[in-house]
């Protein structure tokens, strides 16, 4: 089992809100600092969203992205994976805008529309740090995370024009079929990089049976040696799904975007702490985290 595994660190995302953890990075300095520390801990790639530094609300502001990206690029050779998923309420054009602006090596690319329900977590909190948090979560009950066929074709073009490799976010089995269609139309280029996103209410859940089903479906559609893949489970399923994925030959993603706890009932103090735990798990199975350059070679990043 001697091989290199790509660990991605999803630094802040747009799901968790400041009330949920004091360790969630909000400002450009916090986000870039945690990304650099995660890379030093063993992450080969960092997945980047931006937030309003005043209140932590997810933001499409390119100036905020610029501060984050410039700082990371100054201090680390880690692969920067910019979001095109953005946050609730953002238009597809806003979500995709960072790609032509920054021409990242890697960018997330969501392979279909889903219900993206966050509202059940509201019951866990009696008070909120900022006024926007509760309405933001409540609104998810009526929102659809839009990724239409027209959107997919448009973002394929944006990725290709800017020499950015898409990380295909697979929230459910049908998204694999969308990717297969785009590949057959020549809109995506092989080898594909699939990220199985498991545990969002409205999409596939983080069970071992569902992980196996995603992998077997991808093997059938693309051929087992024709793509690279990674997986994670939201919340407490993060490390079980990540461990299963690497033992199945895949890669993994950890980070405060997906999971706030380092263990049951204990908040993680940083993204680096989550990466360090994943590195320890890998080494228990004689696996090693890939360096950024090794990850570039594995993924075929140009």
Task: Supply database-style keywords.
two-stranded parallel ribbon; 39% helix; 302 residues; alpha/beta; eight-stranded parallel barrel; globular
Task: Provide a brief overview of the structure.
This protein has eleven helices and 16 strands. The chain has helices at 28-41, 62-75, 92-96, 98-102, 133-139, 149-161, 173-184, 208-222, 238-247, 271-284, 292-299, and strands at 4-5, 7-10, 45-48, 50-51, 58-59, 79-82, 106-110, 114-115, 144-145, 165-170, 192-198, 227-233, 251-254, 261-263, 266-267, 288-289. Helix 1 runs parallel beside helix 2 (62-75) and helix 1 (28-41) runs parallel beside helix 10 (271-284).
Structural summary, described in words:
With 302 residues, the protein is α/β, with parallel strands linked by helices. The chain has 11 helices and 16 strands. An 8-stranded parallel barrel has the order 2-3-6-7-10-11-12-13, surrounded by 8 helices. A two-stranded parallel sheet has the order 1-16. Strand 10, helix 7 and strand 11 (192-198) form a beta-alpha-beta unit. Helix 7 (173-184) runs parallel beside helix 8 (208-222). The longest helix is centred in the C-terminal third of the chain and has 15 residues, at 208-222. It is globular, with a radius of gyration of 18 Å. The model has no long low-confidence stretch (mean pLDDT 96).
